[in-house]
Specification:
The protein is α+β, with helices and mostly antiparallel strands and 223 residues long. Helix content is 31%, strand content 24%. It starts with 16 loop residues before the first strand and ends in an 11-residue tail after the last helix.
């Protein structure tokens, strides 16, 4: 089923507490679409509660220094991204197939102990992600597309160029960053880039390094 969209224009439009889903190597950015396959009982419970409530989930990576323990109460990366459940279906074997739409990045504050199997935190949203001031014209779109083409060619991949050309710079940069096959540290660097131009420049630099090393390390950038 599909669930309705909501508008988030200021920090008071967001809840004080968010449930957090730690997932290594996964990146959600504002206006991005992230598909998820949920099967662990604690995260099924998390999505049950979110669907019944405000439909918001905080995506965050485990700490890069301790990537395995984050989901078990270990240290998490301090910056994540809030997503709204915009589609949801249940499979015959009890899994949830979910799509999250990125709302804004946040910084984790203190953890709040609740009687739930998942973790909940107070958070500080990145107001710049909500106020619409993204300076899209500062992005070096030509250079970004040049590097993207080179990556596709090097990995014998195809892209939907009609959709690429139609996308605005914010959607283009964030979508390419999310779909990039880079590792957790690179994903976190893209997430924490202070503005859209910095994220585009970081994406260009990482891709050029990967190309110089002879390709990608873990998948395809576009299906």
């Amino acid at each position: 089923m599909h669930v309705g969209n909501a508008r988030y224009l200021k920090s008071t439009d967001l809840p004080e507490l968010v449930p957090v889903f730690p997932l290594q190597g996964v990146l959600l950015l504002p206006e991005g679409q992230l598909p998820l396959n949920i099967f662990e009982p604690r995260y099924l419970a998390m999505f049950d509660a979110a669907i019944a409530g405000d439909r918001l989930i905080g995506m965050v990576q485990p700490s890069l220094q301790a990537p395995i323990s984050g989901g078990e109460g270990g240290t998490l990366s301090q910056v994540g991204c809030l997503g709204r459940i915009t589609s949801f279906s249940e499979t015959g074997d009890g899994r949830y197939l979910v799509s999250l739409s990125g709302i804004c990045r946040f910084r984790l504050l203190e953890e709040v102990v609740v009687n739930k199997p998942y973790r909940t935190f107070r958070h500080a949203p990145f107001i710049s992600d909500l106020n619409g001031d993204h300076d899209e014209e500062s992005v070096d779109r030509e250079n970004l597309l040049r590097v993207f083409r080179a990556f596709l060619d090097a990995n014998q991949l195809e892209a939907d160029w009609e959709s690429v050309e139609r996308a605005g710079n914010r959607v283009l940069v964030n979508s390419l960053a999310m779909m990039s096959p880079f590792g957790p540290a690179e994903k976190q660097a893209l997430l924490e880039a202070p503005d859209l131009k910095s994220r585009a420049d970081t994406l260009i630099a990482i891709t050029e390094i990967v190309l110089a090393q002879g390709g990608a390390e873990g998948g395809t950038i576009l299906q």
